[in-house]
Design goal:
alpha+beta, Uridine Diphospho-n-acetylenolpyruvylglucosamine Reductase, domain 3, Uridine Diphospho-n-acetylenolpyruvylglucosamine Reductase, domain 2, Vanillyl-alcohol Oxidase, Chain A, domain 3, 12 helices, about 30% helix, about 20% strand, globular, binds 2-acetamido-2-deoxy-beta-D-glucopyranose, FAD-bd_PCMH_sub1, FAD-bd_PCMH-like_sf, signal, FAD linked oxidase N-terminal domain-containing protein, flavin adenine dinucleotide binding
């Protein structure tokens, strides 16, 4: 596989927030700037539009951010080409996918989802792939700017390592490619942060953490820890499930599933809080044993904690070589997710507090100074 060439362009849907009487002025500005002023009625949503909230919610994976207490944007703009993006940028200081199989490169505008990119590649070839995440509803722009971390990471690294060029529009409406934007900006847009069963479950996880990062690169290995209701008498027990992917496939689902932008993630369904950690030294059995009781707490009934092996290609890349920093030296990463239902949202604090307790408990066992986190 060769690296893909990606044209990333910001952005499918822009949420504009501003102060003082902004709506009218902003809209007047747009109508002057849009080449075809009638398109403002198709591309701009304000609170007056009945579909405003459905547009806003359509991309919300975490319903915590759709409750009435969360401030909403003044306007949502859905520009479909660079002219509209330039106009929008000016006023506030979609997307075609082309896959070129011969060169093993792809141009993609950042409004496309990861699923749409996978879909276009899969339609043209079954021998090439792009290495981004499993959850396919995320926009390419967001995915690449967070690094872009998926099941091929141990074999090829992550998505943003494979960006050959990018075009972005700056606050002065200029379209900048890699050469024009310069190394620093190109660094930042690719995920850069500042340089610088009880007993059995314990054994499984304890052993896994020492070997998983040494698995062949072709294997993506993770362990998912959650409460399950095994027995008829309803006794809950912790299940630690090890998952190996040998091939990236969405088994049994039609390819078109990749185009579904409203599909919810398997890890997080409705209201949730997630945090992450990186582990550099194996955690002792005692350390895990102290963690398990937290999963029996009431708040944890729909929580899931996933350990994802690092190593492979990621171990060969020094932290300073590419923008995404979590590379050599990490055995695995941990993703903690706690989910709750809409009717429980008035008690969201108790779930947030559960997460804080878990995160605090893990402090001695995970990376320090600084404590690393994956910031999506
Ligand atoms: C203006 O844009 C709308 C939709 O964006 C399109 O339907 C219409 O044909 C365009 N008119 C011109 C003159 O380009
Ligand atoms: C929003 O509402 C205005 C005024 O009713 C209408 O002209 C416009 O077409 C609506 N915009 C969209 C994107 O539906
Ligand atoms: C964007 O679309 C508008 C309306 O279809 C068109 O007038 C304009 O030339 C397009 N701009 C680019 C850069 O494709
Ligand atoms: C734990 O492992 C032992 C021996 O490997 C096995 O006999 C036992 O059934 C396992 N317990 C559970 C709950 O899986
Ligand atoms: C566990 O499963 C049993 C049988 O399916 C069910 O009766 C019980 O309510 C479940 N317990 C919980 C806590 O979900
Ligand atoms: C997309 O996924 C959502 C949630 O899983 C489902 O409700 C919806 O019907 C799907 N849409 C299509 C077009 O398949």
């Amino acid at each position: 596989m060769f690296p893909f060439l990606l044209l990333i362009l910001l952005s499918l849907s822009w949420r504009i927030s501003a102060s003082a009487q902004p709506a009218e002025e902003f809209l007047r500005c747009l109508s002057l700037r849009f080449h075809n002023s009638s398109s403002i009625t198709k591309l701009v949503y304000t609170h007056h539009n009945s579909s405003y909230s459905s547009v806003l919610k359509s991309s919300a994976q975490n319903f915590r951010f759709t409750t009435p207490s969360t401030p909403t944007p003044l306007a949502i703009v859905t520009p479909f080409n660079a002219s509209y993006i330039q106009a929008t940028v000016y006023c506030c200081r979609k997307h075609e996918l082309q896959v070129n199989v011969e060169k093993a490169t792809a141009w993609v505008e950042s409004g496309a989802t990861v699923g749409e990119l996978y879909y276009e590649i899969a339609r043209k070839t079954r021998t090439l792939a792009f290495l981004a995440r499993i959850g396919h509803t995320v926009g390419i722009g967001g995915q690449l700017s967070e690094g872009g971390y998926g099941v091929l990471l141990r074999k090829y690294g992550i998505a943003s390592d494979n960006i050959i060029d990018a075009r972005l529009i700056d606050a002065y409406e200029r379209i900048l490619d890699k050469k024009l934007m310069g190394e620093d900006l190109f660094w930042v847009i690719r995920g850069g942060v500042s340089k610088t069963l009880e007993q059995n479950a314990t054994k499984l996880v304890h052993q896994w953490q020492s070997i998983a990062h040494k698995f062949p690169k072709e294997i993506h290995s993770s362990i998912s820890i959650a409460m399950v209701n095994f027995s008829e008498d309803g006794k809950m027990t912790i299940q630690a499930e090890s998952i190996l992917y040998r091939a990236l496939s969405i088994i049994g689902l039609p390819l078109e599933t990749l185009l579904n932008r409203t599909q919810k993630s398997a890890l997080s369904q409705t209201f949730f809080k997630a945090k992450s950690d990186y582990v550099k030294q194996p955690i002792s059995e005692l350390g895990f044993k102290g963690l398990w009781p937290k999963f029996y707490e009431d708040e944890a009934k729909s929580s899931v904690t996933v350990l994802v092996a690092c190593g492979g290609k990621m171990d060969e890349i020094p932290e300073t070589e590419y923008p995404y920093p979590h590379r050599a030296g990490n055995l695995y990463s941990i993703l903690y997710v706690v989910n709750w239902e809409e009717e429980e949202n008035k008690n969201s604090k108790k779930f947030m507090n559960w997460m804080r307790r878990v995160y605090s408990y893990m402090t001695p066992y995970v990376s320090k100074s600084p404590r690393e986190a994956y910031v999506p």
